[in-house]
Amino acid sequence: MLVMCNIGSVNITAANLNLFVAFDALAAEQSVSRAARRVGVTQSAMSNSLRQLRGLLGDPLFLRTSRGVAPTPRAKELAGPVREALRLLEGALGPREFAPAASTHTFTLIASDYVEFVLLPRLIGQIGRRAPGVRIQTLPWGMHQVPEELARGQADVMIGFYDKVPAQHREAPLFEERYACIVRKGHPVVRERLTLRTYTSLQHIMVSQRPGASGSGIDRALAQLGRSREVGLRVSHFLNVPTLVASTDLIAALSRRVAEPFAKLLPLRLFEPPLRLRPSRIGMVWHDSLEDDPAHRWLRGVIAEVGAEI
Question: What domains are defined for the chain?
Answer without folding.
Answer: 2-93 (1.10.10.10), 100-177+281-309 (3.40.190.10), 179-278 (3.40.190.10)
